[in-house]
Description:
four-stranded antiparallel β-sheet, 8 strands
Amino acid sequence: YNGPTIKDFQVLANTGFNFIANLGSGTPYTPQQFATPITGEITPSTEGSINGARLPWQFTVDFQADRNFALSFGGEGDKKKTANLNVYLWVTNLLNTRNVRSVHRFTGVAEDDGYLASSQAQQFINQQNDPEAFRMYYAMFVNDPNRLGAPRQIRLGLRLDF
Length: 162
């Protein structure tokens, strides 16, 4: 062992640190000319060429730190049982990067399809029993969290090998 010590304690013995970085260019999508409702009563019309726009780039960094502890128990000498205990900390998306996985074709953003603000939707919205409730429920439905990558997650765990 050639690492740092505090008195007789070997600070980094049987310890590992890992970083994994992932970088990807944005995938293509086809923009549309006007906002269409999620109900599908208006057929979307392509603006520009097929796959003529791109999503933003994606970037994540994951981190893992772990340490092994040798365990022994049971009998004496050759009959002594051994095991290995691994304690780890695993952090995915360490920098908590906001990665857009898909967008609405009209607006090009993940959270809003642009229908509620469009002029063609106003008459339909105002005909609803409660236009404000319609706007809120529609916005909740359109704001799909699956359009974004996973936020930072922290996992602490134990692994026992015997």
